[in-house]
Amino acid sequence: MADDIVYERQTTVDGIGDRNAEHRCISDTWIGVINGVEDQHIIKFQTKKLAQSMSVIVRGVNHRIRAKIQVYYSMGLIIGPPLAGFLYQLGEIYGVGFCVPFYVFGIIAIFSSVIMHFTVKTEQLYVNTGNVTFFQLLSNVGIVINVLITINSGALIGFNTTTLELHLEDIASLSPSMVGLVFLTSGISLVVFNHIWEHLAEKISNKFVISLIGCFSALICLTIIGPIPMIKIKPQLYLVIIAQVLLGLGISAILVGTFAQGSRENIQYDLQWISVNIANTP
Fold first, then answer.
1. Transmembrane stretches, by residue range (predicted)?
2. How far is it, in rounded angstroms, from Cα 71 to Cα 87?
3. What is the spatial distance between Cα 138 and Cα 17, in angstroms, rounded to a whole number?
4. Which of 48, 176, 178, 208 could anchor a disulfide with 85, C-beta 3.0 to 4.6 Å?
């Protein structure tokens, strides 16, 4: 819980940096440091989420729990941008700047962490029977492919988050709330296609097919969102919206496909490990 509270405090103090301040370099450095620490927490959160999901799956509970967790993550992507845009406009109206979204979300997150700490029961989901090194994991080709595809999905999300707003400023005059609605498109697409891919994952033996479909969809997204110079089409808002739908489709396929295949690789690795130990037992 302690690291969660630290993260929420980072979100809260992120609003202190005034980008229009006289000492712009100092404010930008402050925001950069805060965002860097925040990204480290996001990585830690994703790691814990995946580990806990795998523990639940190994115990035989709902095997589609990963897709369900991803749906809730997508709901945050849906609600976050338009709500942040509304709070930003509210701050501008009352002359308090862009800090309002950070204060509101940070305070809510702090209280949520405290409530979860006292209400959620802890339970040991698995027994550690041995350690596997990082290089032992990478000796499995399937796991290496999963790692590369997952890195690709993270890069797509980061690229879209950091560049889309700047791109929209060049092609349309949108209010912060409308910009949030454009971001909302990818979140809705992510939620909808998560359900589709989780059902297809049960019927496809090689889950990498789903991930490859996701990568191809993301490639089309990056092709038309600009669009690329080879395509003689002027940047249009409708192309951005279509690209956001394809991005949600692609990321959902990548994440569901890699986790489903990763679960399969993990089970096969465990069965191999058990077989070797049985064979070596006198």
1. 71-90, 102-120, 132-157, 177-197, 209-231, 237-260
2. 24
3. 41
4. 176
- The pLDDT tens digits of the residues spanning 67-96 come to 566 667 667 766 777 777 788 778 777 777
Interacting residues of 214 by C-beta distance below 8 A, sequence separation 6+: 149, 153, 249, 250, 251, 252, 253, 254, 255, 257
| Direct distance between the N- and C-terminal alpha carbons of the chain, in angstroms, rounded to an integer | 46
Q: What tens digit of pLDDT does each residue of 200-230 get?
A: 887 887 878 888 899 899 899 988 888 887 8
pLDDT grade for 246, boundaries at 50, 70 and 90: very high
